[in-house]
Structures are given as C-alpha cells and as structure tokens.
Amino acid sequence: MPNLETDSKLVTDEYKYGFETLIQSDALPKGLNEDTIRAISAKKNEPQWMTDWRLKAYRRWQKMKEPRWADVTYPPIDYQDICYYSAPKRDGANAEAIDEEMARTFERLGVPLHERNALAGVAVDAVFDSVSVATTQKEKLAEMGVIFCSITEAIHQHPELVQKYLSSVVPVGDNFFAALNSAVFTDGSFVYVPKGLRCPIELSTYFRINAVDTGQFERTLIIADEGSYVSYIEGCTAPSRDRNQLHAAVVELIALEGAEIKYSTVQNWYAGDDEGRGGIYNFVTKRGHCRGRKSKISWTQVEVGSAITWKYPSVILEGDHSVGEFYSVAFTNKKMQADTGTKMIHVGANTRSTIVSKGISAGHSRNSYRGLVQILPSAANARNHTQCDSMLIGSTCSANTYPVIECENETAITEHEATTSKISEEQMFYIMSRGIDEESATSLVVNGFCRDVFKELPMEFSVEAIKLLEIKLEHSVG
Amino acid sequence: MTQSLQLSDVFVAALDAARFQDLETSGVTPLIREKRKAAFAAYRALPMPTVRDEEWRRTDPDQFRIADFQWLPVLASKTAPVGEHDFDASFDVVVSVNEDGYHIADRSGLLAAGKVVVCDLETAARDHASLVAEHVQGAALMEGDRKFTALNGAFWNFGLFIHVPRKVEIPNGILVRYQLGRAGSLLVPKLVVVADEGSSVKVVEMYESGDDAPALCIGVRELYVEQAARLQLFALQEWGRTSFHIGEDWSRVGRDAQIDWVTLTLGSQASKMTMGCDVSAPNSNAYLSGLFFADRDQHVDQRTLQQHSAPNTYSNLLYKGAVKDKGHSVYQGIIGASPGAIKVDAYQMNNNLVLNNGAKADSLPGLKIDADDLKCSHGSTMGNLDPDQLFYLKSRGLSEVEARRMLVLAFFEEVITKIPYAFLQERVREDVNRKI
Lengths: 478, 436
Hints:
The structure holds two protein chains of two kinds. By secondary structure, chain A is α/β, with parallel strands linked by helices. Chain A has one domain (4-473). In chain A, 24% of the residues lie in helices and 35% in strands. The longest helix of chain A is centred in the C-terminal third of the chain and has 17 residues, at 438-454. Chain B has nine helices and 22 strands. Chain B has helices spanning 3-7, 17-25, 30-45, 121-127, 129-135, 147-155, 387-395, 400-416, 422-435, and strands at residues 70-71, 76-77, 93-98, 101-106, 117-120, 158-164, 174-180, 185-187, 189-195, 200-209, 215-225, 230-238, 244-253, 258-265, 270-279, 285-294, 299-308, 314-323, 328-337, 345-354, 360-369, 375-383. In chain B, α8 (400-416) runs antiparallel to α9 (422-435). Chain B folds into two domains: 53-387, no CATH class; 388-436, no CATH class. β22 of chain A pairs antiparallel with β21 of chain B.
C-alpha cells in the first residue's frame, strides 16, 4: 500500500467556487447592538412586531453563553467584528450591470436564475450574502398555491403564516446560535405548500457568501400543509479567504397531517487551506416537526465543506405514525472539523425513525457523529434503527461516535450499530487486480460506502454529490 | 502542592483537612503517608462533580448523601473470620470484611508457602515497598482528575494488596467479601491486584448488606496484568436497597496478557461506576462483561472505557441490563484508540431490556478513534421481550410469569456463564429471579 499519511494532500486547488464577485455592497458597519438590529429591520422595512421579536431574541442572546461541548476547537469568535448585513448595491444607473454580475456569479456556480433554464425543473431562491437576489418560477408555483419566496417577502406578504410558525420549532432561546440568528437573520427561504398538493417541481435555495467578514444568518421556514409533499434542496458555497466567516442558520420544517418534507443539503462552503486558515464556521440549527399523523420528514445531507461544521438536523415525531429519516455523508479533510448528527425525538405512538450516517475522514481532520434517539413514555411501538459508519483515510485523522439512546417505553425497539475502520484493503486489492488504478478504486469504494445516502438525494443532485466527492478525494491516495 | 491548589478546598462532607490530619498522624508507614498525601492534595483541589458535568448528567451526584454517613476508621485485622459462607471452601484465600475489621484466611496454605501475597496495604508497604510504590495510584489511573478516585486515595479505610508472583497459578482463586450490617457506615475500600508475568489468578469480590442498614461505599480498584498474565475478576454488588455505591476501577493489561472482568450490579439504591481498561501493549486482550438489573426505584449508572494505547490490541465488551418498575439504568461506553494504535480490534455491545413503562434505560456507546488501520464497532439495542418467544413458551403451557422469567434469565445467561464458579452463577440467577 502507498503511504497514505504523507500523500494525503487533498483538494488544494479544486475548490472551484473560491472566486469572488467584485461588486459594491451596501453593508452595515461591523458590530452588534440593538441599533444594528433596528437597522437590519429598517433596511428590510419590517413591521414593528418583527423588530420587537428580533430585539427580544437579542436580549435573550446576551444572557446566553457560547456552547463549548462539541468536539471542535476554534479561537473565540468576536461577535463585534462581524458585519451583520451586506447586500449588493443597486442604485438606479447600474442596476442592470449588477444584475448581470449576479447572474454571472450564479451561472458560474451552476445555478440557473433565468426562467429559460427552467428546464432543470427546479425553482431557485438565490441568497447572496444577506439578501435573496432572485426567486425563479414564482408565478408557476403561485398558480398552484405554493408560496415560495424569500423570508423577507413572506414577512410582508404572509405575516399571518410567519407569525404562526416562526420559532414554533426552534424557539428563540433554543441555543446560543439560534438566538443570535433570531436577532440578526437577514434572509432565507419561505415555503408553504397548500393542502393535498404534491409540489411537482423541486424547490431550491442557493446560498452564497461573498463579502469579507460578513456573517450569513439565514432563516428558512417550510410548512407542508395536510397531505402535501415538497422536496427542497439547499446548496452553499463561499470564496476562498484566509479569514473565518460565520454562518449560523436556523431551518424549521413543519409537516402537518399526512404531509411529507424532503430536505436535501449539499454543503460545500470553503473549508480553509491546508494549514487550516480560513473557511466557514457552519453552526446551524435545523429541526423538523412532524405535527400531524402520518407525516414524514426526511433530511439528507452531504457535508463536504466548511472549516467547522456543527449541526444536528433533528425531527420531533409528535404525530402518531410519523416518520423521521436522516441520511448523512460527512467528508472531512485537511484541518476540517465536523461534529454532526441528528436527534430523533419520539413522542407519538408508532413513530419510526431511521438514521444512516457515513463519515469519511482524511488528512488531519476530525469527524464526529453525535446523535440522540429519545423514546418518550408516550411513544408506544416506536422504532429506531441507526447505522453509523466511519471510514479513515490516513493515520492523522480521527473519527468519533457519540450516540445517546434513551428509552422510556417498554414496547419500543431501538437498534444502534456503528463501525470505524479504514478503507478495506481487500476491496481495494480486488478492484485494482481488475486493472483499475488506485485513485479510481478508492473513489469506487468510497462511493459504495456512501451509496445508502446518495440514493436518497434527488437524481441530479445525487450525480453532483458523487462528482463532488470524487473531486474531494483526488490526491488523497497515491 | 502549589498554593493555588490549596486555595480551592473542596471537601466531601466530613472528609476534610482535620480528618486527614488525624489519619496521617496515626502511625502509618512513610510510603502510605506519601501516597495518601498526594491523593489528598488532588482531592481538595478537584471540584465536586455536578449534574452539569456530562458524565453525571444522568446521575445526580447529590443523591449520594455522603454527609449522612460516618467514615469508618481504618479497619483492623481480626483473628477469626468475619461471618462465614459455605462457598468460602471454593477458594484458596478468603478475605472477609465488616465494619469492625477484616480477616484473611489462608485456606490452602498458599499464603504460608509464600506463593501469593494477600495482605493489607500497610503491611504491603513495609514488606513489598517497591511494588506498592509502583502500583498504588500508579499507571492504571488513566483519567487523572477524578474526585472520588482521589478521595479514595486519601481516605481509604480498607486497603487490600494482592500480588501473584511470576508464573504462579492460583487454582481456586481469592474471595474478598464485604458484609456491612450497621446503618450509616462509609466504607472506602481500595483493592490493588498485581498479576506478575505469566501468572494466573481469579478474584471474586462480593458486597452484601441488609436492606435496613444504609451504607455508602466509595471504592477504587487498580488492576495490573503484567506480560502473559491472566486475571479474572468477578464483582458481585448486592448492597441492600438503601445503600449507595460509587466505584472507580482501573486496569492496565500488558503484553500477551488477558483480563476477564465481569461486573454484576444488582443491589443498592443508586450506584455510579467507572470501569477503565487500558490494553497497553501489543497482543493484550480485555474481555469486559456486565450484568445489571434495576427494579423498583433503583438507579444504575455504569461507564466503561476500552482504551487501546498500543497497536495489535484486542477488546470485547458485553453489557446486558434490564430495567423494571421505576428502575433507571445508564450505560456509557467509550472505545478509544490512541494515535498509532493500529491493527486494533475492539467491540462493544450493550443490550437493554425495558420490561415495563415507567422504567428507563439510557445507552451511550461511543467511539473515539485517532488511528486508521483498525476495526472498532459498537452496537446497542433496546426493547422488551420478544412477543413471539413469549407466545411460543405460553403455547407450551407455561404461564405468562414463568415464560417471562425464563426469557429474562436466558437473556442474562450469556453473561452468567462467563463466571467459572457454579455457586456464583446460581446466586446471580437467584438474584435476577427475585427481581422479575
């Protein structure tokens, strides 16, 4: 076998999304205080109730302490040294030029912003730094009664829905970063799918951080009304810079009776360079609530970027017979750190959850799975199956697994299995004996390892994810 | 010790500086005094664990009301055995302990022949100073900053030292039994076992007390299994239902050596235990097994560490537990592989039976892997008895109760049969049976 240890120098130049868009931006000065929040609220022309809600969250946040329990290390974050609002500047004369530039940016990222690209069958909401710059296919969706817009627009157009559902899954004071997000969130997507409708096109948000020292705080709220279905995709990239940037998002999903939400993420934020300089701190709170009977929420995530990933997409299974799923591939390399996993909280009877987590660590990275399966006394016949596998490439990385299983109902059954091992020598030998070179063989084995997760992704995305992983794996062997 | 350490005195109940001074000046050998002193410095500097600590989140340390118990003065040697059991005859050496003192019975003449050393720590410090110096608070303590390990090091009131010399085999094993009868006793036992190169020994520890005599035990074990040696340790905890138990045990397994460690936790109101095992040299093996059953309002919290600090090491863990009535069990386990610990094979399995609503089982199996070429896995299951199996047994004419009993016993049999003493197997089965 070749020396994996010294040759593990993955993805040095492959981060092809590392470019910067040179446009003027309209940004607030750095720093955070009540005036900043009022200013954000004013820029977005928000109603008073929203401003008050933000201020309440801010006051709450001031009393909270930054959590330190995760298996990640990073220098203290100076919350006063972050710009909390940055938007592409649009003044009458050059508005068109800006739009062109933006369109080009998203074109380079492979995101279709123009309706003529609607062939892709996806409706896109593009978020650039702090604001949503475009939402496609809106009219077509509106005809069917689907509301798909930026959250700012939703606050203006559908205040009753926003007020009813916002922070109903992730309370304002849920955790440090959720409270911060509630105070300063700038944009994100809002989706409402009406009763009984199976949303025929996939909804998607593309997040792009561009400006320097800007934090991105997005807020996504998806509501699937009774008997509806929606598939939502999220993609993220950022320019390569040598300074860390904070991304603290909150995503809330609500599935009413018989509804199903499928949420897929391909997260490819800039991960920092070989020495661990720069990269995004991705501290995200994602939670779904299966409120009604027979509702279903499914999370699929492919995490290949970010200097630090810290997120646990969770499902609260309240409705009887509701189903929660979590499929995850987390790839870490260089000095990346990932602490990710899920929480499945079984409240209702006959609730079921499945967790499949695949972690791959290379270079000097740390990759941890942390999960909670909680069976409350009311969750009769609850069922959980968890499978966590970790693969190690090279001897300087680490893989950790910290599951918690709590069971308070005698009729519940839970199973948890986890393995950690290096890439199988036997499989490699077999493939290579068929004349396939080592790099391709590694890629094949890794893809096979992640198959259970990739097959859950929407088709085009699945292809994309496989390619992405291949790129990330280049030069990791040989 | 430094000034700053002394500034943050954190004493547990009456185990304070004055008490320590009494203990220190009451004529002990210099080596023991040094050991106690070092432990006391650590003890007074370390904070008391709280529910805010991850490890204690599920077991509130406040429920161990240490202030309600009276620390027993260091136990003295007795001329006659303390209590008697018919199974004493199954062993070569029997150490019996109660509140008034302890007795060591040399049943097969091994002690007299100098084949094995079983004595209290003071005697050992005089006769085997270098062994004691190395192995008391020695390399086995893999987690340094632990309040109760330090407390035990400073305030142990019964210290037992077992040394099995090179290539000696103790055929019938050593029994250490604790029987407490007086209400309010605080027993702080320390057991140090050194199985020297190529030796082989079985040690059984039994803790008993009455339901009406609440006691508290804060015990620490240090187990050293040297090259090519084998140690089998069986610990049966049958404290009465009003008693409390805190245990922190550490073992270090050497090259080509093997430990078989079976922990049977059936008694006490609440118990909190840590069992750490370091397979520290190539080809060292650890087999850790556990059986626990929390019924009524019992609380059992067990934490295991399988630390692989060397390449080519092997560990296999099986902990099986049941909860019934309002019982609550917590199992936390970590498999750790240090950087460079390649070709490691480690497994960890935790099976739980939740026998009725109201009972609660928590399982936290964990992996901390810092090396690449290895195989580590764990599994955890929770559930009730299999309804198909119950139905089958009932269709054969067994009553519901009989069928359940049979299945619960069958569930535990895998662990019970790891005990090489028939009387002990039977005793555990009876204990389990009573709880069903």
